[in-house]
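ugh ok fine here u go
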Amino acid sequence: MAYSVPPDTQRDIAPTGKLRVGLNYGNFLLVLKDKPDGTPQGIAPDLARELAKRLEMAIEFVKFDAAGKLADGVKSGAWDVAFLGNEPQRAAEIAFSPAYLEIPVTYLVPAGSPIKTIAEVDRKGVRIAVADKSAYHLFMMRELKNAELVSADGIEGSYKLFIDSKLDALAGLKPRLLTDQQKNPGSRILEGQLTAVQQSIGTPKSRESAARYLKEFAADVKKSGFVAEAIARHKVPGVSVAP
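structure:
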């Protein structure tokens, strides 16, 4: 199928003529381990390559190890488009497409914890480990009123903090918490979800025609089945195509 993208839109998306794509390697659901030759793998890299193909451009991947660092990359002009969680605090500088995929967020509590429900977590004296500047961290900073958030660098850092400091709960993406639960006999994942991280495609706020094109692209890859096929191809559990 041929895609005709106006030259001015191409220039707005990638002013250098090469599509620079920001990836968050801290999100193991969307970005898998690179191939031995360094080629990125996963849902986000597949979408990025499809975008570059439609734009008829070469692609360059810009790699970050945490969501907050990827989001901050917009300030230095490190990337043209980025695959990251759509958060109001990031929207001041980043124009987001509609979500193409969503990931449920909940809590893991240790063996013997008296906490039974998500609502019980937000209480005085409860300490929660969370990945610093992740989309759900930003959400929790706005929404939680009583519990104390203790942040660490990246998802792995928040898990280590939860274990080493014996905190009351670990906030995280449910698919990752399932693997953490297996390492901690007696620990429990709380039913339901605190929120769902909406994964979107972002571009610098000033690039209006780029934002319009990414909106159309996100809608098309959902409707065509491209996102669903990528989820199945990479065998990613616990995520779904965004409604």
